[in-house]
Write a structure and sequence with these properties.
Layout (H helix, E strand, L loop, with lengths): L14 H33 L11 H30 L6 E8 L2 E6 L6 E4 L21 E4 L3 E8 L4 E5 L4 E5 L5 E6 L4 E6 L12 E7 L1 H14 L1
Parallel strand pairs: 1-5, 4-10
Antiparallel strand pairs: 1-2, 2-3, 5-8, 6-7, 9-10
Length: 230
């Protein structure tokens, strides 16, 4: 999860998020280099005493500042397109989960398990247990097996929502009457927090998302217990 004074992204918990972090670092270095060069040119221009009123143009400079930006843009565009295609890939998911946004909570339906569905409400501040996070903890987490391809179908019942978990590199709109899908593989066990990222009304900030990744055998035990309770 995020922490105070954090400047970068959250630690990656999925292969796609790792790629996004690498792309962010790659692009940020290019931005720093360009900014440094522009700052140097500005300082050199305003501080120099050298002038030549007879210079009208320079074909060499025109060629350089046309070709170099084109190369830079290509070096950014190619990895960006690669990640876009990786994020759209859904290959043989082991589990499909439907996430339905409401004002203001999420409900989950495990389509591969008959009758395994539940609502996920934020735990109120006065009901939190020691160690739980205010405005982020829910009464029923979305539990998934780690190192397994997971497909999530996202929609909404009333208004626009967005199902977002930063550590997994997932952000997808929940649109009433439309079914969007995304996929991810969680590479390590843990609890990953997210929030609705589309302004959806007065309690928009009070419908968190919690994804808990566990080993496969633990997931099977959890699903059996949940089915018995339901």
């Amino acid at each position: 999860m995020a922490h105070p004074s954090q400047l970068g992204f959250q630690d990656a918990a999925s292969p796609v998020m790792e790629e996004l972090l690498h792309f962010h670092d790659h692009t940020l270095m290019i931005v720093f280099l360009i900014s440094s060069l522009v700052l140097y040119v500005i300082v050199a221009t305003v501080s120099t005493k050298l002038t030549n009123k007879y210079i009208l143009d320079s074909q060499e400079i025109e060629i350089v500042w046309t070709i170099v930006p084109a190369i830079i843009l290509i070096s950014i565009a190619l990895p960006s397109l690669r990640i876009l295609y990786l994020m759209d890939e859904i290959n043989d998911p082991h589990i499909t989960i439907k996430a339905l946004g409401h004002q203001w909570y999420w409900s989950y339906e495990y389509t591969d398990y008959q009758d395994l569905e539940f609502d996920s409400y934020m735990i109120q501040t006065e009901d939190l247990s020691p160690g739980q996070f205010r405005l982020l903890e829910v009464d029923h987490r979305m539990v998934v097996p780690m190192q397994s391809p997971i497909r999530v179908l996202v929609t909404a019942e009333d208004v626009l929502h967005a199902w977002t978990v930063p550590a997994l590199g997932v952000k997808i709109d929940a649109v009433p009457g439309r079914l969007n899908q995304t996929a991810f593989i969680i590479s390590r066990p843990g609890i990953f927090y997210g929030q609705c990222s589309e302004i959806c009304g007065a309690n928009h900030s009070f419908m968190p998302i919690v994804v808990e990744a566990v080993p496969l055998e633990h997931f099977e035990n959890w699903s059996s217990l949940m089915l018995e309770e339901l």
